[in-house]
Sequence to fold (376 residues):
Amino acid sequence: MVIYAAKLSVLFIKLGGQLLEYWKKKGAIALLLLAMVGSLVGCATGPMTSPGWGGLGISEDTLYLASSQGKVFALDAESGMQKWVYPPGEKEVRGPFYSAPTVVDDLVFVSSQAGAVHALDTGTGLERWTFETEEGFVGAPAVVDGEVYVGNTDGKVYALDATSGWTKWEFETGNWLWSSPVVDGDRLYVASMDHKMYCLDRSTGRKVWESEVGGAIPGTPLLADGTLYFGALDKKLYAMDASSGSVHWEFEAESWNWGTPVLVDGTLYIGSLDHRVYALEAATGRKQWQLELDGAVLAGATYADGALYVATDGGTIYALGVSTHSPKWTFSVEGRILVPPVVSGDYVGVNSMEAGLYVLVAESGLQRWASAPDGK
Fold:
């Protein structure tokens, strides 16, 4: 534990210095990330607080919000009416949460910075099981074929049974895991803050290969057509061969690329902390176009029906036409948006760190309803 705390403290100093330098140039988003880093170091070196920023999941007619205040809410997608809350006690919390809930069949899975993964009944919110560790979770669980895969800030990825929460195996990387694992057949891909991408055997956790890039990898990679696409804290976006770990190409932005890229018809879209969205040719990494937004893009975009939905820490959600390279509409709130929008049918859901949850009409951007279930 002492060695781990020392390792975290060193990374806190290094990453913290980068964040403070970025804050001088670009804005207060770096201070929020610095607070997050500090809170995770606190898991190992002493208690520190962090607000989290929550996330949204969706299944049929229900929105699931893992809130920054440490509760999980199930809300009717049409009206915003609350169906249930977990935990039900007014003062009882299980967070804060940094990632979206993962909904599979009749279970919703959430992971918290408090060091626990919870499996809840989608209909009632009752807890089916809880898996606990000494350190916190940042990324969302990946759930495939009755197994849960989740990375922890202790540097380990855990494979759990989705029915019972029983641990099947664990694999340790060289530093924090802030991303969600990615599953492809019998392979599991894990991005680590130790600058490495890992490919594991999904059934055993045995390492197949590892590949190092020029910076820590905080976000979840996109896997498409045998290629992993992901950003790192060296300002670069990488395209990596999923079978070998060799790098096909690199693209350098003016700041960090954090969120998961989106691939549409051979074009890769990625938002950056330099306030831009980039459109790249997926095969080569060649830039096709870029668009300046009103703030840093921390989260990944969401694509649906010809539109790319992107949110910024300036409090604006953009619906960008991928054919026109321009906004179809914008919608602004009084707060930072640090998590990806969710899209289902004709509505778009977005959660602001300070202003609460908004559901908009996908075609026009008009507000359908707004709610602040956790008292924002």
